[in-house]
């Protein structure tokens, strides 16, 4: 069964380098995404309450984007990515989140989860 890809765009009032710190470093991710985050090279462990998920960094460009692949989804094309987009004219900064849901029915739920997470991020950075 193939997963359903979706993208969300969030305008964020922050510089790309400051924003990147919040999704490209374990300390930044702990402030809004997971309770604890441990990294060993390209392997990242996200810890929430009693659950633990491992992901591998598959692409990374400082102040621009980072792409993670859950180890449990090694057999498919899914990943989740944070990408910073800066409008050439207005210099407005947006965070683009790309993720996958298991099926069409789960897309809306996954989008709502990301919207809540990004609200938490905005609150954390005061944007």
Automatic annotation (TrEMBL):
Pfam families: START_2. Residues 2-127 form the START-like domain. InterPro entries: START-like_dom_sf, START_2. This is START-like domain-containing protein. It comes from Tenacibaculum polynesiense.
């Amino acid at each position: 069964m193939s997963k359903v890809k979706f993208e969300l765009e969030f305008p964020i009032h922050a510089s790309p380098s400051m924003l990147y710190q919040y999704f490209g470093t374990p300390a930044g991710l702990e402030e809004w995404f997971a309770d604890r985050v441990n990294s060993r090279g390209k392997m990242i462990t996200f810890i929430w309450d009693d659950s633990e998920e491992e992901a591998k960094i598959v692409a990374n460009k400082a102040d621009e984007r980072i792409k993670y692949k859950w180890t449990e989804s090694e057999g498919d094309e899914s990943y989740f990515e944070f990408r910073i987009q800066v409008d050439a004219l207005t210099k407005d900064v947006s965070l683009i989140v790309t993720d996958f849901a298991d099926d069409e029915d789960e897309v809306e739920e996954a989008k709502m989860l990301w919207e809540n997470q990004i609200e938490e991020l905005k609150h954390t950075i005061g944007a």
